[in-house]
């Protein structure tokens, strides 16, 4: 009797693993009703509420809803990347999901690729919803011509930088239960001092300098450049939109965020074996 050679198992390609993991992350997010409502609907509620209450002219014929459009999109990006990412990863660390994934043959990089794809998908949905509501309710003037290209690269770079920062910040929470209390105040403070909820020139100078260290400030500034007339660039700290510096700082944060992730990421809660 001849015993045949054992069959060789063919492992899926890295690209297929990445696509599968990305699909899992996107599906899991949209199945969580609370996360979907908070991440997608909250920025819309913010736009509707503040746009209705704060009705004043900011100069150059710009009303508050038009000015706030850049800020509320920034808040949506921060919510879906930095805040949502940090809280969810801390939860997955506490409930053992990360430990289980680390013990599978799946490349660990696939986990992070899946998270980034999830953030980009949620960001696209959030931005589309905000633009739709902004135009329908307040008659927001949309970007035109090359401003759409600027809008795209600023949003993608900002989302990437905030995602990596969120992954790093997830390690600050001791466990999943404390994640929201740890991360949400940090995100809100960053948004306030970065000119997301009020004109940046009304933020004290020393806070402007502090905020300029982080990517949220530059994301908001880059988005203001596509929703506001050039006349309002004079209100920026440098008197211009500084799109070159916006690209440089957000790109640098992508690199710095990646380094922080490598140095700080934990697959288990502190104190566990």
TrEMBL record:
For this UniProt record, the keywords arranged alphabetically read as follows: Antibiotic resistance, Cell membrane, Membrane, Transmembrane, Transmembrane helix, Transport
Q: Which GO terms describe its biological process?
A: response to antibiotic
Q: Which residues form the ABC transmembrane type-2 domain?
A: 34-268
Entry's localization field: Cell membrane; Membrane
Q: What is the membrane topology noted in the UniProt record heading this document? A: Multi-pass membrane protein
One Pfam match: ABC2_membrane
Q: Name one GO molecular function term.
A: ABC-type transporter activity
Q: Which residues cross the membrane?
A: 36-54, 66-91, 112-138, 150-169, 181-200, 246-265
**Listed GO cellular component terms?**
ATP-binding cassette (ABC) transporter complex
As for family, the record states: Belongs to the ABC-2 integral membrane protein family.
Q: What is this protein called?
A: Transport permease protein
